[in-house]
Amino acid sequence: MVEMTVESVRINLATQQRVVILKASQQERYLFIWIAYAEAYAIAVELQGATSQRPLTHDLLKNVISELGAHMESIVISDLVDEIFYARLVLDVAGRHVEIDSRPSDAIALAVRTKTPIFVEESVLERGGVTLESGEEPQPSTDKDAQASEDDGNLDAYRDFINSLDVLDEFGKD
After folding, report:
1. Is 69 left (phi over 0), alpha (psi -120 to 50) or beta?
2. What is the mean pLDDT of each run of 10 residues along the chain (174 residues)?
3. Which InterPro entries match (predicted)?
C-alpha cells in the first residue's frame, strides 16, 4: 500500500465536475477521484480550516465514532472496478480491528477530519494512478485519456486538462 495525502480539490468550470487529487507521500504519483459536490465541499472546508455552525455529515460521523469509543486507524482506497473506486474505513474498536465499506469521497472527508492516514492499494495506483516526470503538473483524466497517455508515453493530455480546472478555494464556488 502507498500512503497518500490530499493534494487539492478542484473543479472543472465547464462541466462543474469536482475531483480530489491524492499525492503519494514519497513519490510523484497521483490518483484522481471524481466526486460529488457535497463531498468536495466537505473536504475543502476541512482543508481550509473552516468550521460550520452545525456539524456536517462527516463531522457527525467523526463524533459518533469517537463517542462510541472507536478510533480511526486509516482509510484504504482498496479497489477500482469499472471506473468505480472502493474504499474502507479501518477502525480500532476497543482493540478489535474493524473495516467498513465506504465511498472514497466519504472516507477522504472523514480522514481529513480525523488526521487519519490515507492508503491506496498498489494495484489501484497501477490501474488508475499517474506518475509524473519532474516538472510536470498532475492531470486528471478519463480512462481513455490515461490509456492514450500510457500508449505514447506522453502526459500532455493530462497537463492540458489540469490547466482547465480551478482549485476549490471558495466553498460556494460553482
Report:
1. left
2. 95 89 93 94 91 89 95 97 96 96 97 97 95 62 40 49 57 44
3. BFN_sf (IPR036104), Bi_nuclease_dom (IPR003729)
Helix 37-47 to helix 57-67 angle (10° resolution) is 70
CB 109 within 8 Å of CB 118: no
Rounded Cα gap, residues 20 and 39, in angstroms = 9
Angle (nearest 5°) at CA 106 between 102 and 111: 100
- Please give the CATH topology (third level) of the domain spanning 2-167: Bifunctional nuclease domain (3.10.690)
Residue 36 has which C-alpha cell? 460529488
What's the half-sphere exposure (Cβ side, CA atoms, 13 Å) at 132? 19
> How many alpha carbons lie under 13 Å from residue 58 in its C-beta half-sphere?
27
State the DSSP code for 116: -
